[in-house]
Structure prediction request, 622 residues.
Amino acid sequence: MTLLNFASVLKKILLLISLFSCGITSVFAQVIDDSTQNVYGATTTFFTTEENIKNNLKDYQVIDTSLTGTHNWDQVNINDYYYQNLGTVGTAMRPVFYEAPEVIGKRSGFGVYDQYMKTPDQFKYFDTKSPYTKMRSVFGGNYRAFIGIDFSRNVNENWNVGFSFRRWTVDKQIGPLERRGDLNVLSHSYDFQTDYRSPDRKYHVMFNFARTFHKVDETGGIRDTTEVLTYEELFDYEDEEINLRNAQGGELRQQYHIYQQYKWKKLIQFYHVLDRTNRMNIFYNSEPAAATDVDYFDQFLLRTDSTMDLSRYVYFQNEVGFKGSIGDFFYRFYGKRKDIRFTGKYLPRVNPFSENYAGGYIRFSPKEDWQLKANAEYELNGNYQIGATLKVPFLTVSAKSMQFASPFFYEQHLGNHDYWRNDFGSEQVQQLSGKLDINWKDYFRIQPKLDLKVVSNHMYFDTLAMPQQSNGVATLLHPGIEAKAKYGVMNLDANYIYTLKEGSDADLFRIPEHFLTLDVYYHQVFEGRLEARIGLEGHYKSTYFADDYDPVIQQFHLQNYFEVPGYMFVDFYASVKINTAQLFFKFRHINQDVTAGGYFTTPYYTGQRRILDFGVTWSFFD
Prediction:
Protein backbone atom coordinates (compact mmCIF):
# COMPACT_ATOMS: atom_id res chain seq x y z
CA MET A 1 0.00 0.00 0.00
CA THR A 2 1.43 3.35 -1.00
CA LEU A 3 1.53 6.20 1.49
CA LEU A 4 -0.91 8.17 -0.67
CA ASN A 5 -3.43 5.32 -0.78
CA PHE A 6 -3.11 4.78 2.96
CA ALA A 7 -3.72 8.45 3.66
CA SER A 8 -6.81 8.45 1.42
CA VAL A 9 -8.27 5.40 3.14
CA LEU A 10 -7.44 6.83 6.58
CA LYS A 11 -9.35 10.04 5.81
CA LYS A 12 -12.42 8.02 4.86
CA ILE A 13 -12.14 5.93 8.00
CA LEU A 14 -11.88 8.98 10.28
CA LEU A 15 -14.90 10.54 8.62
CA LEU A 16 -16.93 7.36 9.01
CA ILE A 17 -15.89 6.95 12.63
CA SER A 18 -17.22 10.44 13.31
CA LEU A 19 -20.52 9.63 11.62
CA PHE A 20 -20.62 6.27 13.34
CA SER A 21 -20.05 7.83 16.77
CA CYS A 22 -22.85 10.34 16.18
CA GLY A 23 -25.12 7.52 15.07
CA ILE A 24 -24.32 5.42 18.13
CA THR A 25 -25.17 8.34 20.38
CA SER A 26 -28.55 8.67 18.71
CA VAL A 27 -29.14 4.93 19.03
CA PHE A 28 -28.47 4.97 22.76
CA ALA A 29 -30.67 8.03 23.09
CA GLN A 30 -33.48 6.18 21.32
CA VAL A 31 -33.11 3.15 23.59
CA ILE A 32 -33.21 5.33 26.70
CA ASP A 33 -35.96 7.69 25.61
CA ASP A 34 -38.15 5.16 23.84
CA SER A 35 -37.40 2.03 25.87
CA THR A 36 -41.02 1.72 26.96
CA GLN A 37 -42.22 1.74 23.33
CA ASN A 38 -39.42 0.26 21.19
CA VAL A 39 -39.77 -3.48 21.89
CA TYR A 40 -38.65 -4.72 18.49
CA GLY A 41 -35.21 -6.05 17.68
CA ALA A 42 -33.24 -9.14 16.71
CA THR A 43 -35.21 -11.36 19.10
CA THR A 44 -38.48 -10.45 17.39
CA THR A 45 -37.19 -10.98 13.84
CA PHE A 46 -37.33 -14.56 12.57
CA PHE A 47 -36.48 -16.30 9.32
CA THR A 48 -36.75 -19.68 7.65
CA THR A 49 -35.53 -21.28 4.44
CA GLU A 50 -37.17 -23.33 1.73
CA GLU A 51 -35.15 -26.39 2.79
CA ASN A 52 -36.61 -26.20 6.30
CA ILE A 53 -40.17 -25.97 4.99
CA LYS A 54 -39.66 -28.57 2.26
CA ASN A 55 -38.20 -31.14 4.66
CA ASN A 56 -40.46 -30.30 7.64
CA LEU A 57 -37.54 -29.13 9.76
CA LYS A 58 -37.68 -26.37 12.38
CA ASP A 59 -39.88 -23.57 11.20
CA TYR A 60 -38.47 -20.13 12.04
CA GLN A 61 -35.31 -19.11 13.91
CA VAL A 62 -33.89 -15.85 15.28
CA ILE A 63 -31.44 -13.94 13.05
CA ASP A 64 -27.72 -14.11 13.88
CA THR A 65 -26.25 -10.83 15.17
CA SER A 66 -22.92 -12.17 16.48
CA LEU A 67 -19.54 -10.79 15.42
CA THR A 68 -18.46 -14.10 13.87
CA GLY A 69 -17.28 -13.44 10.31
CA THR A 70 -18.15 -9.73 10.41
CA HIS A 71 -14.62 -8.83 9.25
CA ASN A 72 -14.86 -11.03 6.14
CA TRP A 73 -16.30 -9.71 2.88
CA ASP A 74 -14.17 -11.51 0.29
CA GLN A 75 -15.85 -14.76 -0.86
CA VAL A 76 -12.58 -16.67 -0.38
CA ASN A 77 -12.43 -15.56 3.28
CA ILE A 78 -16.13 -16.21 3.79
CA ASN A 79 -15.65 -19.77 2.50
CA ASP A 80 -12.71 -20.41 4.88
CA TYR A 81 -10.12 -20.33 2.06
CA TYR A 82 -11.53 -23.47 0.41
CA TYR A 83 -11.45 -21.59 -2.91
CA GLN A 84 -8.70 -20.35 -5.22
CA ASN A 85 -9.20 -17.01 -6.98
CA LEU A 86 -7.13 -14.57 -9.05
CA GLY A 87 -5.87 -12.62 -6.05
CA THR A 88 -8.55 -9.97 -5.58
CA VAL A 89 -12.22 -9.68 -4.62
CA GLY A 90 -14.69 -10.58 -7.35
CA THR A 91 -12.39 -12.57 -9.63
CA ALA A 92 -12.88 -16.12 -10.93
CA MET A 93 -12.94 -18.87 -8.28
CA ARG A 94 -12.58 -22.64 -8.12
CA PRO A 95 -12.57 -25.12 -5.19
CA VAL A 96 -9.15 -26.02 -3.80
CA PHE A 97 -10.40 -29.57 -3.12
CA TYR A 98 -12.29 -31.64 -5.66
CA GLU A 99 -16.07 -31.23 -5.41
CA ALA A 100 -18.67 -33.19 -7.32
CA PRO A 101 -21.53 -31.08 -8.72
CA GLU A 102 -24.92 -31.02 -7.03
CA VAL A 103 -26.69 -31.70 -10.34
CA ILE A 104 -26.45 -35.13 -12.00
CA GLY A 105 -27.88 -33.95 -15.33
CA LYS A 106 -26.59 -31.58 -17.97
CA ARG A 107 -24.97 -28.37 -16.75
CA SER A 108 -23.67 -25.39 -18.69
CA GLY A 109 -20.03 -26.07 -17.80
CA PHE A 110 -19.40 -22.56 -16.40
CA GLY A 111 -18.99 -21.99 -12.68
CA VAL A 112 -16.16 -19.58 -11.85
CA TYR A 113 -18.61 -16.85 -10.77
CA ASP A 114 -21.08 -19.09 -8.91
CA GLN A 115 -19.99 -17.80 -5.50
CA TYR A 116 -21.10 -14.28 -6.42
CA MET A 117 -24.61 -15.40 -7.41
CA LYS A 118 -27.53 -15.77 -5.02
CA THR A 119 -29.27 -19.09 -5.66
CA PRO A 120 -32.87 -19.95 -4.68
CA ASP A 121 -31.78 -22.14 -1.74
CA GLN A 122 -29.90 -19.16 -0.20
CA PHE A 123 -32.97 -16.96 0.24
CA LYS A 124 -34.26 -16.26 3.71
CA TYR A 125 -37.99 -15.73 4.29
CA PHE A 126 -38.74 -13.55 7.27
CA ASP A 127 -41.43 -13.11 9.86
CA THR A 128 -40.91 -9.61 11.20
CA LYS A 129 -42.91 -7.82 13.88
CA SER A 130 -41.57 -4.54 12.50
CA PRO A 131 -39.77 -3.50 9.28
CA TYR A 132 -36.26 -5.01 9.21
CA THR A 133 -33.36 -3.36 7.33
CA LYS A 134 -29.73 -4.47 7.22
CA MET A 135 -27.12 -2.22 5.60
CA ARG A 136 -23.49 -3.15 5.01
CA SER A 137 -20.73 -0.99 3.55
CA VAL A 138 -17.08 -1.90 3.10
CA PHE A 139 -14.35 0.55 2.09
CA GLY A 140 -11.17 -1.27 1.14
CA GLY A 141 -7.75 -0.01 0.21
CA ASN A 142 -6.81 0.23 -3.47
CA TYR A 143 -10.37 1.41 -4.17
CA ARG A 144 -12.17 -1.84 -3.36
CA ALA A 145 -15.72 -1.38 -2.13
CA PHE A 146 -18.95 -3.22 -1.39
CA ILE A 147 -22.43 -2.06 -0.46
CA GLY A 148 -25.37 -4.27 0.44
CA ILE A 149 -28.93 -3.58 1.56
CA ASP A 150 -31.50 -6.11 2.80
CA PHE A 151 -35.07 -5.17 3.64
CA SER A 152 -38.03 -7.22 4.82
CA ARG A 153 -41.39 -6.51 6.42
CA ASN A 154 -44.66 -8.22 7.12
CA VAL A 155 -47.65 -6.94 5.16
CA ASN A 156 -49.75 -8.82 7.68
CA GLU A 157 -49.20 -11.79 10.00
CA ASN A 158 -49.37 -14.21 7.04
CA TRP A 159 -47.53 -12.34 4.28
CA ASN A 160 -43.95 -11.05 4.13
CA VAL A 161 -42.06 -9.24 1.35
CA GLY A 162 -38.42 -8.26 1.01
CA PHE A 163 -35.62 -7.30 -1.36
CA SER A 164 -31.81 -7.08 -1.48
CA PHE A 165 -29.22 -5.12 -3.44
CA ARG A 166 -25.47 -5.75 -3.82
CA ARG A 167 -22.68 -3.82 -5.55
CA TRP A 168 -18.95 -4.55 -5.80
CA THR A 169 -16.34 -2.22 -7.33
CA VAL A 170 -12.72 -3.37 -7.33
CA ASP A 171 -9.76 -1.65 -9.00
CA LYS A 172 -6.96 -3.67 -10.56
CA GLN A 173 -4.19 -4.77 -8.23
CA ILE A 174 -1.72 -5.53 -11.02
CA GLY A 175 -0.95 -3.27 -13.97
CA PRO A 176 -3.57 -0.50 -13.63
CA LEU A 177 -3.32 2.32 -16.16
CA GLU A 178 -4.57 4.88 -13.63
CA ARG A 179 -4.12 5.33 -9.91
CA ARG A 180 -7.88 5.18 -9.50
CA GLY A 181 -10.74 3.98 -11.65
CA ASP A 182 -9.12 1.20 -13.74
CA LEU A 183 -11.69 -1.38 -12.66
CA ASN A 184 -11.01 -5.07 -12.34
CA VAL A 185 -14.54 -5.98 -11.16
CA LEU A 186 -17.92 -4.30 -11.37
CA SER A 187 -20.87 -6.33 -10.12
CA HIS A 188 -24.53 -5.49 -9.51
CA SER A 189 -27.22 -7.78 -8.17
CA TYR A 190 -30.72 -7.34 -6.87
CA ASP A 191 -33.42 -9.76 -5.80
CA PHE A 192 -36.92 -9.93 -4.41
CA GLN A 193 -38.64 -12.52 -2.23
CA THR A 194 -42.05 -13.03 -0.71
CA ASP A 195 -43.93 -15.79 1.07
CA TYR A 196 -47.53 -16.27 2.13
CA ARG A 197 -49.14 -18.69 4.59
CA SER A 198 -52.87 -19.22 4.75
CA PRO A 199 -54.49 -18.39 8.10
CA ASP A 200 -55.00 -22.10 8.85
CA ARG A 201 -51.33 -22.77 7.91
CA LYS A 202 -52.26 -25.50 5.43
CA TYR A 203 -50.99 -23.65 2.35
CA HIS A 204 -47.57 -22.00 2.04
CA VAL A 205 -46.08 -20.37 -1.08
CA MET A 206 -42.61 -18.87 -1.53
CA PHE A 207 -41.37 -16.87 -4.51
CA ASN A 208 -38.00 -15.32 -5.29
CA PHE A 209 -36.40 -13.54 -8.22
CA ALA A 210 -32.71 -12.67 -8.62
CA ARG A 211 -30.64 -10.91 -11.25
CA THR A 212 -26.85 -10.51 -11.24
CA PHE A 213 -24.48 -9.02 -13.78
CA HIS A 214 -20.90 -9.77 -12.81
CA LYS A 215 -18.36 -8.08 -15.11
CA VAL A 216 -14.59 -8.53 -14.92
CA ASP A 217 -11.92 -6.60 -16.84
CA GLU A 218 -9.52 -9.46 -17.43
CA THR A 219 -5.76 -8.94 -17.05
CA GLY A 220 -4.53 -12.36 -18.18
CA GLY A 221 -2.09 -12.24 -15.27
CA ILE A 222 1.38 -10.70 -15.08
CA ARG A 223 3.35 -10.61 -18.33
CA ASP A 224 6.68 -12.31 -17.65
CA THR A 225 9.22 -11.99 -20.47
CA THR A 226 12.17 -13.46 -18.58
CA GLU A 227 13.59 -16.85 -19.51
CA VAL A 228 13.95 -17.95 -15.90
CA LEU A 229 11.03 -17.59 -13.52
CA THR A 230 11.98 -15.45 -10.49
CA TYR A 231 9.11 -15.04 -8.06
CA GLU A 232 10.44 -11.97 -6.23
CA GLU A 233 10.54 -10.02 -9.49
CA LEU A 234 6.76 -10.37 -9.88
CA PHE A 235 5.69 -8.40 -6.80
CA ASP A 236 5.68 -4.88 -8.25
CA TYR A 237 1.85 -4.90 -8.39
CA GLU A 238 0.76 -1.62 -10.06
CA ASP A 239 4.07 -1.43 -11.95
CA GLU A 240 3.73 -4.90 -13.48
CA GLU A 241 2.87 -5.38 -17.14
CA ILE A 242 -0.22 -7.50 -17.80
CA ASN A 243 -1.22 -9.74 -20.71
CA LEU A 244 -4.60 -8.20 -21.59
CA ARG A 245 -5.66 -4.55 -21.82
CA ASN A 246 -8.86 -4.80 -23.88
CA ALA A 247 -10.59 -7.90 -22.51
CA GLN A 248 -13.79 -8.25 -20.52
CA GLY A 249 -15.57 -11.33 -19.28
CA GLY A 250 -18.49 -12.04 -17.04
CA GLU A 251 -21.85 -13.62 -16.46
CA LEU A 252 -25.43 -12.40 -16.54
CA ARG A 253 -27.82 -14.59 -14.57
CA GLN A 254 -31.56 -14.19 -14.06
CA GLN A 255 -33.72 -16.68 -12.21
CA TYR A 256 -37.31 -17.16 -11.04
CA HIS A 257 -38.27 -19.68 -8.38
CA ILE A 258 -41.57 -20.76 -6.79
CA TYR A 259 -42.14 -23.28 -4.00
CA GLN A 260 -45.63 -24.11 -2.77
CA GLN A 261 -47.07 -26.79 -0.56
CA TYR A 262 -50.42 -27.93 0.82
CA LYS A 263 -50.72 -29.75 4.12
CA TRP A 264 -53.67 -32.10 3.91
CA LYS A 265 -52.69 -34.06 6.99
CA LYS A 266 -49.47 -34.61 8.91
CA LEU A 267 -49.18 -37.98 7.19
CA ILE A 268 -49.39 -36.60 3.67
CA GLN A 269 -48.66 -33.20 2.13
CA PHE A 270 -48.17 -32.12 -1.47
CA TYR A 271 -45.64 -29.71 -2.93
CA HIS A 272 -44.55 -28.17 -6.23
CA VAL A 273 -41.33 -26.39 -7.26
CA LEU A 274 -40.87 -24.32 -10.42
CA ASP A 275 -37.57 -22.89 -11.69
CA ARG A 276 -36.71 -20.77 -14.68
CA THR A 277 -33.05 -19.75 -15.10
CA ASN A 278 -31.24 -17.85 -17.85
CA ARG A 279 -27.41 -17.70 -17.81
CA MET A 280 -25.15 -15.92 -20.31
CA ASN A 281 -21.36 -16.20 -20.15
CA ILE A 282 -19.46 -13.64 -22.21
CA PHE A 283 -15.89 -12.91 -23.27
CA TYR A 284 -15.24 -9.73 -25.26
CA ASN A 285 -12.03 -8.18 -26.56
CA SER A 286 -12.28 -4.94 -28.51
CA GLU A 287 -8.76 -5.23 -30.01
CA PRO A 288 -7.35 -8.76 -29.67
CA ALA A 289 -4.73 -8.05 -32.36
CA ALA A 290 -3.37 -5.00 -30.51
CA ALA A 291 0.26 -5.17 -29.41
CA THR A 292 -0.84 -5.27 -25.76
CA ASP A 293 -3.00 -8.39 -26.24
CA VAL A 294 -2.02 -10.33 -29.36
CA ASP A 295 0.70 -12.47 -27.77
CA TYR A 296 -1.82 -13.93 -25.33
CA PHE A 297 -3.85 -15.71 -28.03
CA ASP A 298 -2.68 -18.90 -29.72
CA GLN A 299 -4.91 -18.50 -32.76
CA PHE A 300 -7.64 -16.46 -34.47
CA LEU A 301 -10.33 -18.70 -35.97
CA LEU A 302 -13.01 -16.21 -37.04
CA ARG A 303 -11.75 -12.61 -37.06
CA THR A 304 -8.88 -10.42 -35.86
CA ASP A 305 -10.59 -7.05 -35.30
CA SER A 306 -12.55 -8.16 -32.22
CA THR A 307 -13.65 -11.17 -30.19
CA MET A 308 -17.18 -11.76 -28.93
CA ASP A 309 -17.75 -15.25 -27.53
CA LEU A 310 -21.09 -15.95 -25.87
CA SER A 311 -22.75 -19.05 -24.44
CA ARG A 312 -26.31 -19.20 -23.17
CA TYR A 313 -27.88 -21.80 -20.89
CA VAL A 314 -31.63 -21.65 -20.25
CA TYR A 315 -33.75 -24.17 -18.40
CA PHE A 316 -37.30 -24.59 -17.16
CA GLN A 317 -37.84 -27.13 -14.36
CA ASN A 318 -40.88 -28.54 -12.60
CA GLU A 319 -40.82 -30.77 -9.53
CA VAL A 320 -43.94 -32.34 -8.04
CA GLY A 321 -43.93 -34.47 -4.92
CA PHE A 322 -45.56 -35.59 -1.71
CA LYS A 323 -44.22 -35.86 1.82
CA GLY A 324 -45.28 -36.54 5.39
CA SER A 325 -44.35 -37.56 8.92
CA ILE A 326 -45.04 -40.68 10.94
CA GLY A 327 -43.75 -40.20 14.46
CA ASP A 328 -39.98 -39.64 14.25
CA PHE A 329 -39.90 -40.65 10.59
CA PHE A 330 -40.15 -38.21 7.66
CA TYR A 331 -40.39 -39.05 3.98
CA ARG A 332 -40.47 -37.12 0.68
CA PHE A 333 -40.79 -38.50 -2.87
CA TYR A 334 -40.90 -36.58 -6.13
CA GLY A 335 -40.76 -36.55 -9.91
CA LYS A 336 -38.99 -33.82 -11.86
CA ARG A 337 -38.71 -32.65 -15.46
CA LYS A 338 -36.08 -30.25 -16.78
CA ASP A 339 -36.20 -28.67 -20.26
CA ILE A 340 -32.86 -27.18 -21.33
CA ARG A 341 -31.54 -25.11 -24.21
CA PHE A 342 -27.80 -24.43 -24.62
CA THR A 343 -26.53 -22.23 -27.45
CA GLY A 344 -23.27 -20.63 -28.53
CA LYS A 345 -22.85 -17.51 -30.64
CA TYR A 346 -21.23 -19.39 -33.53
CA LEU A 347 -22.80 -22.83 -33.00
CA PRO A 348 -25.84 -24.15 -34.86
CA ARG A 349 -29.01 -23.79 -32.87
CA VAL A 350 -29.33 -26.64 -30.40
CA ASN A 351 -32.65 -28.46 -30.13
CA PRO A 352 -34.30 -28.40 -26.70
CA PHE A 353 -32.99 -31.10 -24.40
CA SER A 354 -35.18 -32.74 -21.74
CA GLU A 355 -34.38 -34.71 -18.60
CA ASN A 356 -36.71 -36.67 -16.33
CA TYR A 357 -35.95 -37.56 -12.72
CA ALA A 358 -37.40 -39.52 -9.83
CA GLY A 359 -36.12 -39.24 -6.29
CA GLY A 360 -36.72 -39.38 -2.59
CA TYR A 361 -35.51 -38.31 0.85
CA ILE A 362 -36.09 -39.95 4.24
CA ARG A 363 -35.12 -38.95 7.77
CA PHE A 364 -35.34 -40.75 11.12
CA SER A 365 -34.76 -38.64 14.25
CA PRO A 366 -35.55 -40.54 17.47
CA LYS A 367 -33.75 -37.84 19.50
CA GLU A 368 -32.76 -34.25 18.89
CA ASP A 369 -29.06 -35.14 18.49
CA TRP A 370 -29.60 -38.56 16.82
CA GLN A 371 -30.43 -38.53 13.13
CA LEU A 372 -30.24 -40.82 10.12
CA LYS A 373 -31.10 -39.44 6.70
CA ALA A 374 -30.81 -40.77 3.15
CA ASN A 375 -31.54 -39.50 -0.34
CA ALA A 376 -31.60 -40.92 -3.85
CA GLU A 377 -32.20 -39.48 -7.32
CA TYR A 378 -32.24 -41.18 -10.70
CA GLU A 379 -32.22 -39.53 -14.11
CA LEU A 380 -33.65 -41.59 -16.97
CA ASN A 381 -30.46 -41.27 -19.03
CA GLY A 382 -28.72 -43.39 -16.38
CA ASN A 383 -27.17 -40.81 -14.07
CA TYR A 384 -27.84 -41.07 -10.35
CA GLN A 385 -26.87 -40.11 -6.83
CA ILE A 386 -27.38 -42.01 -3.57
CA GLY A 387 -26.34 -40.68 -0.18
CA ALA A 388 -26.77 -41.28 3.53
CA THR A 389 -25.71 -39.51 6.73
CA LEU A 390 -25.69 -40.75 10.30
CA LYS A 391 -25.32 -38.19 13.07
CA VAL A 392 -24.97 -39.06 16.75
CA PRO A 393 -23.65 -36.88 19.62
CA PHE A 394 -19.98 -37.78 19.09
CA LEU A 395 -19.80 -38.82 15.42
CA THR A 396 -21.04 -37.87 11.94
CA VAL A 397 -20.58 -40.32 9.07
CA SER A 398 -21.76 -39.88 5.47
CA ALA A 399 -21.49 -41.85 2.24
CA LYS A 400 -22.31 -40.91 -1.33
CA SER A 401 -22.27 -42.55 -4.74
CA MET A 402 -22.82 -40.43 -7.83
CA GLN A 403 -22.71 -40.47 -11.61
CA PHE A 404 -23.22 -37.20 -13.49
CA ALA A 405 -23.42 -36.10 -17.12
CA SER A 406 -20.81 -34.13 -19.04
CA PRO A 407 -21.46 -30.37 -19.28
CA PHE A 408 -22.56 -28.86 -22.59
CA PHE A 409 -19.53 -26.58 -22.83
CA TYR A 410 -17.11 -29.51 -22.47
CA GLU A 411 -18.69 -31.24 -25.46
CA GLN A 412 -18.92 -28.49 -28.06
CA HIS A 413 -17.55 -24.96 -28.44
CA LEU A 414 -16.64 -22.64 -31.27
CA GLY A 415 -15.13 -19.27 -30.42
CA ASN A 416 -12.69 -16.86 -31.97
CA HIS A 417 -9.71 -18.55 -30.29
CA ASP A 418 -10.87 -22.08 -29.44
CA TYR A 419 -12.74 -24.97 -31.03
CA TRP A 420 -13.56 -28.50 -29.92
CA ARG A 421 -16.16 -31.19 -30.35
CA ASN A 422 -16.33 -34.16 -27.98
CA ASP A 423 -18.55 -37.05 -27.05
CA PHE A 424 -17.90 -37.55 -23.35
CA GLY A 425 -19.52 -40.10 -21.06
CA SER A 426 -20.47 -39.67 -17.42
CA GLU A 427 -18.13 -39.22 -14.47
CA GLN A 428 -18.41 -41.32 -11.31
CA VAL A 429 -17.60 -40.40 -7.70
CA GLN A 430 -17.70 -42.52 -4.56
CA GLN A 431 -17.29 -40.61 -1.30
CA LEU A 432 -17.00 -41.55 2.37
CA SER A 433 -16.44 -39.04 5.17
CA GLY A 434 -16.51 -38.98 8.92
CA LYS A 435 -15.93 -36.56 11.79
CA LEU A 436 -15.52 -37.22 15.52
CA ASP A 437 -16.67 -34.60 18.00
CA ILE A 438 -14.75 -34.49 21.29
CA ASN A 439 -15.27 -31.58 23.68
CA TRP A 440 -14.68 -30.67 27.28
CA LYS A 441 -17.08 -28.05 28.59
CA ASP A 442 -16.32 -24.71 26.92
CA TYR A 443 -12.54 -25.13 27.09
CA PHE A 444 -11.85 -27.06 23.93
CA ARG A 445 -13.44 -28.97 21.08
CA ILE A 446 -11.50 -31.33 18.81
CA GLN A 447 -12.95 -32.80 15.64
CA PRO A 448 -10.71 -35.32 13.82
CA LYS A 449 -12.03 -35.87 10.31
CA LEU A 450 -11.44 -38.00 7.24
CA ASP A 451 -12.68 -37.61 3.68
CA LEU A 452 -12.17 -40.27 0.99
CA LYS A 453 -13.10 -39.79 -2.67
CA VAL A 454 -12.67 -42.23 -5.56
CA VAL A 455 -13.12 -40.49 -8.93
CA SER A 456 -13.48 -42.35 -12.25
CA ASN A 457 -13.62 -41.04 -15.83
CA HIS A 458 -12.78 -37.53 -14.68
CA MET A 459 -13.49 -34.56 -16.99
CA TYR A 460 -11.01 -31.68 -16.90
CA PHE A 461 -9.17 -29.06 -18.95
CA ASP A 462 -5.61 -30.06 -19.87
CA THR A 463 -2.42 -27.99 -20.09
CA LEU A 464 -3.57 -26.59 -23.45
CA ALA A 465 -6.91 -25.52 -21.92
CA MET A 466 -8.76 -28.17 -23.94
CA PRO A 467 -11.48 -30.38 -22.39
CA GLN A 468 -10.53 -34.02 -21.86
CA GLN A 469 -11.95 -37.11 -20.20
CA SER A 470 -9.73 -39.74 -18.66
CA ASN A 471 -10.52 -43.44 -18.42
CA GLY A 472 -8.63 -44.00 -15.19
CA VAL A 473 -9.24 -43.72 -11.45
CA ALA A 474 -7.95 -41.37 -8.75
CA THR A 475 -8.19 -41.85 -4.99
CA LEU A 476 -8.13 -38.68 -2.88
CA LEU A 477 -7.64 -39.08 0.87
CA HIS A 478 -7.99 -36.05 3.17
CA PRO A 479 -7.36 -36.67 6.88
CA GLY A 480 -7.59 -33.56 9.01
CA ILE A 481 -8.59 -31.95 12.26
CA GLU A 482 -10.68 -28.99 13.39
CA ALA A 483 -10.05 -27.57 16.84
CA LYS A 484 -11.42 -24.84 19.06
CA ALA A 485 -9.93 -23.78 22.39
CA LYS A 486 -10.94 -21.13 24.88
CA TYR A 487 -9.21 -19.74 27.94
CA GLY A 488 -11.01 -16.81 29.49
CA VAL A 489 -11.45 -14.22 26.74
CA MET A 490 -8.79 -15.77 24.47
CA ASN A 491 -9.79 -18.17 21.71
CA LEU A 492 -8.14 -20.37 19.08
CA ASP A 493 -9.81 -21.84 15.99
CA ALA A 494 -7.81 -24.16 13.74
CA ASN A 495 -8.44 -26.25 10.64
CA TYR A 496 -5.83 -28.55 9.08
CA ILE A 497 -6.17 -30.91 6.09
CA TYR A 498 -3.56 -33.27 4.68
CA THR A 499 -3.95 -34.62 1.13
CA LEU A 500 -2.78 -37.95 -0.22
CA LYS A 501 -3.40 -38.85 -3.89
CA GLU A 502 -3.18 -42.29 -5.50
CA GLY A 503 -4.17 -43.91 -8.79
CA SER A 504 -3.51 -43.48 -12.50
CA ASP A 505 -5.35 -40.13 -12.58
CA ALA A 506 -3.85 -38.70 -9.39
CA ASP A 507 -1.92 -36.00 -11.27
CA LEU A 508 -5.16 -34.57 -12.69
CA PHE A 509 -6.02 -33.22 -9.25
CA ARG A 510 -3.71 -30.38 -8.23
CA ILE A 511 -4.24 -29.99 -4.49
CA PRO A 512 -1.78 -28.66 -1.87
CA GLU A 513 -0.46 -31.37 0.43
CA HIS A 514 -0.94 -29.17 3.50
CA PHE A 515 -3.83 -26.78 4.13
CA LEU A 516 -3.99 -24.81 7.38
CA THR A 517 -6.13 -21.98 8.75
CA LEU A 518 -5.62 -20.41 12.19
CA ASP A 519 -7.59 -17.73 14.00
CA VAL A 520 -6.37 -16.46 17.39
CA TYR A 521 -8.62 -13.84 18.90
CA TYR A 522 -9.79 -11.97 21.96
CA HIS A 523 -13.56 -11.96 22.43
CA GLN A 524 -15.40 -10.12 25.16
CA VAL A 525 -19.03 -9.24 25.77
CA PHE A 526 -19.25 -6.24 28.06
CA GLU A 527 -22.13 -5.09 30.18
CA GLY A 528 -24.91 -3.52 28.19
CA ARG A 529 -24.75 -3.72 24.42
CA LEU A 530 -21.01 -3.73 23.68
CA GLU A 531 -19.12 -6.71 22.23
CA ALA A 532 -15.55 -6.78 20.87
CA ARG A 533 -13.39 -9.23 18.93
CA ILE A 534 -9.72 -8.67 18.05
CA GLY A 535 -7.55 -11.26 16.38
CA LEU A 536 -4.95 -12.57 13.97
CA GLU A 537 -6.06 -14.87 11.17
CA GLY A 538 -3.57 -16.83 9.07
CA HIS A 539 -3.80 -19.24 6.18
CA TYR A 540 -1.20 -21.55 4.64
CA LYS A 541 -1.05 -23.77 1.56
CA SER A 542 2.03 -25.82 0.75
CA THR A 543 3.80 -25.64 -2.61
CA TYR A 544 1.83 -27.06 -5.53
CA PHE A 545 1.11 -26.61 -9.24
CA ALA A 546 -2.13 -24.66 -8.84
CA ASP A 547 -4.42 -24.65 -11.87
CA ASP A 548 -3.97 -21.75 -14.29
CA TYR A 549 -6.89 -19.69 -15.58
CA ASP A 550 -7.99 -19.02 -19.16
CA PRO A 551 -10.30 -15.95 -19.21
CA VAL A 552 -11.34 -16.57 -22.83
CA ILE A 553 -13.21 -19.78 -21.93
CA GLN A 554 -13.66 -18.96 -18.21
CA GLN A 555 -12.04 -22.22 -17.13
CA PHE A 556 -9.23 -23.25 -14.80
CA HIS A 557 -6.88 -25.78 -16.36
CA LEU A 558 -3.81 -27.89 -15.60
CA GLN A 559 -0.31 -26.40 -15.92
CA ASN A 560 3.25 -27.61 -15.28
CA TYR A 561 5.30 -24.41 -15.61
CA PHE A 562 4.52 -22.41 -12.46
CA GLU A 563 4.85 -24.03 -9.04
CA VAL A 564 2.99 -21.78 -6.60
CA PRO A 565 5.28 -21.50 -3.53
CA GLY A 566 3.98 -22.44 -0.12
CA TYR A 567 3.16 -19.34 1.90
CA MET A 568 1.34 -18.26 5.03
CA PHE A 569 -0.25 -14.82 5.10
CA VAL A 570 -1.58 -13.18 8.25
CA ASP A 571 -4.43 -10.67 8.64
CA PHE A 572 -5.10 -8.51 11.69
CA TYR A 573 -8.71 -7.60 12.42
CA ALA A 574 -10.77 -5.85 15.06
CA SER A 575 -14.56 -5.75 15.22
CA VAL A 576 -17.00 -4.26 17.68
CA LYS A 577 -20.77 -4.43 18.12
CA ILE A 578 -22.69 -1.61 19.79
CA ASN A 579 -26.41 -2.17 20.00
CA THR A 580 -27.42 -3.08 16.40
CA ALA A 581 -24.31 -1.69 14.68
CA GLN A 582 -21.14 -3.62 13.83
CA LEU A 583 -17.85 -1.99 12.88
CA PHE A 584 -14.65 -3.68 11.70
CA PHE A 585 -11.08 -2.91 10.63
CA LYS A 586 -8.98 -5.47 8.81
CA PHE A 587 -5.30 -5.09 7.97
CA ARG A 588 -4.68 -7.61 5.20
CA HIS A 589 -1.38 -9.44 4.76
CA ILE A 590 0.48 -7.71 7.58
CA ASN A 591 3.51 -9.99 7.11
CA GLN A 592 4.23 -8.84 3.55
CA ASP A 593 7.93 -7.96 3.08
CA VAL A 594 8.69 -9.80 6.32
CA THR A 595 8.61 -13.35 5.00
CA ALA A 596 8.38 -12.49 1.27
CA GLY A 597 7.33 -9.72 -1.09
CA GLY A 598 4.00 -11.42 -1.68
CA TYR A 599 2.36 -14.69 -2.66
CA PHE A 600 0.41 -16.21 -5.56
CA THR A 601 -3.07 -17.67 -5.65
CA THR A 602 -2.91 -18.67 -9.33
CA PRO A 603 0.07 -18.70 -11.75
CA TYR A 604 1.03 -15.07 -12.47
CA TYR A 605 -1.77 -13.70 -10.27
CA THR A 606 -0.52 -12.25 -6.97
CA GLY A 607 -2.53 -12.62 -3.78
CA GLN A 608 -3.89 -9.68 -1.84
CA ARG A 609 -1.12 -7.23 -0.96
CA ARG A 610 -0.88 -5.43 2.39
CA ILE A 611 -3.91 -3.20 2.61
CA LEU A 612 -6.47 -1.79 5.05
CA ASP A 613 -10.22 -2.52 4.94
CA PHE A 614 -12.98 -0.89 6.96
CA GLY A 615 -16.66 -1.76 7.14
CA VAL A 616 -19.95 -1.08 8.90
CA THR A 617 -23.02 -3.30 9.22
CA TRP A 618 -26.12 -1.74 10.75
CA SER A 619 -29.51 -3.31 11.40
CA PHE A 620 -32.74 -1.37 11.93
CA PHE A 621 -35.97 -2.79 13.33
CA ASP A 622 -38.39 0.07 12.82
Q: What stands out?
A: Confidence is low (pLDDT under 50) at residues 1-36. The longest strand covers residues 307-326. Helices lie at 3-33, 50-54, 75-78, 408-411.
